Amino acid sequence: MSNIIKILFATLLAVCTFVGCQSSKDENSAKGTAEVNSKGVFVDGKPYWLLTGEIHYFRVQPEYWRDRLEKLRACGLNTVSTYCPWNSHEPTEGNFNFEGRFDMGAFLKLCQEMNIKVMLRPGPYICSEWDFGGLPAWLLTVPNMKIRSNNPVYMEKVSAYYKRILKEAEPYFCNNGGPIVAIQIENGYASWGNEMAYLEALREIVLNTGFKGIIYTADGDSDVRINALGPKGVWRTLMCGWDLEKGIDIMEQTQPNMPQMISEWWVGQGLRLGKPRTVRNIQEMSEELDAILARGAHVACYMFHGGTNYGFMSGGLRNPPALPYTPFVSSYDVDAMVTEAGDITPKYLKFRDIFLKYNPENKKFPIPANSVKKAYGTIKLTQVASLRENISNLAVKKIYSPDIKTMEDLGQYYGFISYKSKLRPQSFPIPVEIRGVRDRAWISIDGEDKAVFTQNDKETSVVVDVPNGGDIDILVENMGRVNFALTMEDNRKGITGGVVLNKQQFQQGWEISSLPLDNLNKLNYKSVAKGDKVKYPAFFKGTFNVDEAHDTFIGFSKGKRGYVWINGELLGRYDHIGPMLTTYLAAPLLKKGENTIEILELEGMSEFSVESLDKRKIIERGKFHGKRSPRKAKK
């Protein structure tokens, strides 16, 4: 009975703190501020409970931002947290992008209009299953670069980015009447390093903008990482997926006399290629959520709504020897509270009951309806273009080099790269080895396909017989840069170690073509019909008509793996090994009348067609009962 009384008292205290307690500061002098201290979190001098859902503006079509935010608000949440991807905002050094899905200012303005507070997470590193953890690949070409440290070369680039991204955010700072009440510096830094000077430098850049809100860090999910030190004046918050109360216990001992926040509660995480999506037990999660809210803890649900890794932006994992290289998929439908297509889930409804218990004010917001989904049927692919036969049409840059170069050496960061050379006559068959395949390579000799290798293959050589010499052609696909763990600096793409003949000689003299595939307009398509032989990898093209645009899902049951474009927009990768067997196509990307679909099929198609479906298809693994190695609070 005593435990029940304690829980009831804690719940009452938490609710009172949220709705009625007074700050020690005069509210007028605190106007336009957000702070955290031993008495709690305060916005404009008033107690504030950070009930937060994570939505990434860059993973959602702008036309759907309002719908996702309305669903967040209707769920009983009052704050949105969002990353900012440096590599998409500054795709090449000094050239910034704030258009379309990357119009951060428009997203923040919408949050302001809807009275939703914002926790901004500009990195520079964001992890997030995003390519290179959000770091721009051009950093890999800068001499003397050491990422995620107070290295002067790195900090020069970070400072320029921080100043530009925060300039974009500045009109929306709380002290300017905007919704941004907190800014996170770095991300999970204790999983990488422990240099306090680096975090202090990031803190100073934020302070120098005049921001009057909360600056915080986020680390987790073990004792080692939780106990990382934090700079003075920076709130330390926790990332974790289970054992929430034990995490809070540890934080209360390592950061006493302060409110505690789980700034990333992993309600759903990234989808790895070929791995079933894990679905967690909703009841167990709900009980944990209720327990920490009863204690007055702040929380952010990661993800509230996952969205889509459009383009080539899915990252990958590699942590040898235990973990081979595994790319993430283009879908970020991570068993979040709202699906990739914006639909509410049983998890949403269950968590909503709990959040509204502590924030009953949001009961006034109705749950918006899910979007209409439509199946447009079979889409015939009537044209074909061999990738290899169109290299000159696709290449944005071609160089001649005595030695192998990586993508980054050519100023290329995504897509494919082509290497061509001439083998000299050999008196006996010789092995040709590709060292450093990043990440999938097709090898042909005199136009004949010989092998396909990935970076996980222990053997990446093929025996060739060229008594009269021959043309060697190697096509390499970048499948996504590692976004987490200590292997991140080893992230160049293409061929990183050279081509070796007979284990003793480098092949030299290369024609190298950069194929970022950001424009397919010059492809030389030809008609294709059932029974025609096609040389893969190959592009296919078809059209379909739309009377009224609705969300739909593209299925590739007749193909194996590749990429899909709609009206010139790259949606991302598809793969028959799952877990996502369909690609989400948002209605705003369709137009009334004729629409064009193009796919790059890498292996082969049994029929030249794809399907437009009204439901997603996904491979899932049973309910995960998330009781993993429980933490122990230190005494």
Molecular structure report:
With 635 residues, the chain is α+β, with helices and mostly antiparallel strands. Helix content is 18%, strand content 30%. It contains 11 helices and 34 strands. Strands 15, 26, 27, 28, 29, 30, 31, 32 and 33 form a 9-stranded antiparallel sheet that branches. Helix 5 (152-169) runs parallel beside helix 6 and helix 9 runs parallel beside helix 10 (346-358). The two termini are 26 Å apart. Residues 1-25 and 623-635 have low confidence and may be disordered.
Percent helix, as a range, is: 10-25%
Structural class, judged by helices and strands?
alpha+beta
Strand content: 25-35%
Alpha-carbon Rg, integer: 26 Å
Overall geometric form: globular
Separation of the first and last Cα atoms: 26 Å
Low-pLDDT residue intervals, each spanning 5 or more residues: 1-25, 623-635
Question: Can I get a quick summary?
Answer:
By secondary structure, the protein is an alpha+beta fold.
Give keywords:
globular; 635 residues; alpha+beta; 34 strands; 8-stranded parallel barrel; disordered N terminus; 30% strand
Question: What's the helix and strand layout?
Answer:
Elements: H1 2-19, E1 34-37, E2 40-43, E3 46-47, E4 51-55, H2 65-74, E5 79-83, H3 86-89, H4 104-113, E6 117-121, H5 152-169, E7 180-184, H6 196-207, E8 214-219, H7 223-226, E9 235-240, H8 244-254, E10 261-266, E11 277-280, H9 282-294, E12 298-305, E13 316-319, E14 323-327, H10 346-358, E15 377-386, H11 391-394, E16 397-401, E17 416-423, E18 430-438, E19 440-445, E20 448-454, E21 461-464, E22 470-477, E23 494-501, E24 505-506, E25 510-515, E26 526-527, E27 538-546, E28 552-555, E29 561-566, E30 569-575, E31 582-585, E32 593-601, E33 609-613, E34 620-624
Parallel strand pairs: 4-5, 4-12, 5-6, 6-7, 7-8, 8-9, 9-10, 10-12, 11-34
Antiparallel strand pairs: 1-2, 2-3, 13-14, 15-26, 15-27, 15-33, 16-25, 17-22, 17-25, 18-21, 18-23, 19-20, 19-22, 23-24, 27-32, 28-31, 28-33, 29-30, 29-32
Helix pairs in contact: 5-6, 9-10
